[in-house]
Amino acid sequence: MRNIMLTLVFSLLVALPALAQAVTVTGTYNSTEGAMTLRQQGDRITGSYGNDNGELTGVLYDRTMDGFWIEDSSARRCSTAKNGRYYWGRISIEFTDSGFSGQWGYCNDALTSAWNGTRTSSPPRTAAPPPKSYEDDPFVIREEATIEGTWSSSEGDIRFRQQGNRISGRYGSDNGEIVGSLNNTTLQGYWIEDNSNHRCSTSKNGRYYWGRIELIFDGDRFGGRWGYCNDPPTQSWTGQRK
After folding, report:
1. How far is CA 111 from CA 105, 108, 212, 232, in A?
2. What is the mean pLDDT of the chain?
């Protein structure tokens, strides 16, 4: 029995998704929001673009960047500041070798407007400088928490794997996969499944059934929310370490 259990554990570890970066996004782009320059340091992305002194900051998951746009002015003022400015919103952009396509929204609203671009330069051979850190940036990298291991949850058992602040995981519901970034005790990222009640218009890791997650860990327990596609997370997801 012990040998069988060891074999099963090894098989689970092998099956977990790799954490290696699949694309390098450093370079210049023509985009629907003006000329854009992006810089990549590991999975951290920063950038600038021409519209209202625009700034980008986020994290790259496989080929998808999740983060924020920030400007001096826009059609809507947010109630809180991001990097000292009150005009900002969330973005989700998927890169290809020749450019990107994605969506943006105002403040913390759902993403509803298109943002597309075409690459105009190749990535440089030298590494980009480290990005700036800001206290109100939810993507600041911290490594105080360790969640690696097996957890029981309201969506079935989850096997988390952690490398720095990068998180991947597997769970039983519809061949479920988790990918994200752990910032202090908060995991932000995605769930991805073979099937669900809502099919998204774009794929994530080759599958069209996915959504955002935000899970907050407190010792041997976690609680949080999940949603469909790029909608705000509203459904409960809880669990505890086994």
Report:
1. 4, 9, 12, 9
2. 82
For residues 92 and 201, what is the distance between their CA atoms, to the nearest angstrom?
Answer: 13
Amino acid at 198: H
Residue with token string 């990005």: 131
Cβ within 8 Å of residue 148, ≥6 positions away: 160, 161, 162
Q: Tens digit of pLDDT for each residue in 191-206?
A: 999 999 999 988 887 8
Evaluate if residue 124 carries a pLDDT over 60.
Answer: no
Integer Cα distance of 9 and 185 in angstroms: 26
Taking the C-alpha atoms of residue 226 and residue 143, their distance in angstroms, rounded to an integer, is: 23
- For residues 145 and 216, what is the distance between their CA atoms, to the nearest angstrom? 11
3-state secondary structure of 151: strand
Is the pTM for the entire model greater than 0.70?
A: no
Amino acid 56 reads L
DSSP 107-141: BTSPP-EEEEEEE-SPPPSSPPPPPP--TT-TT--
Q: Which domains does the chain carry?
A: 27-119 (2.40.128), 141-241 (2.40.128)
Interatomic CA distance for residues 5 and 234, integer angstroms: 37
Q: Please compute the mean of the pLDDT values over residues 238-242 and round it to a whole number.
A: 93
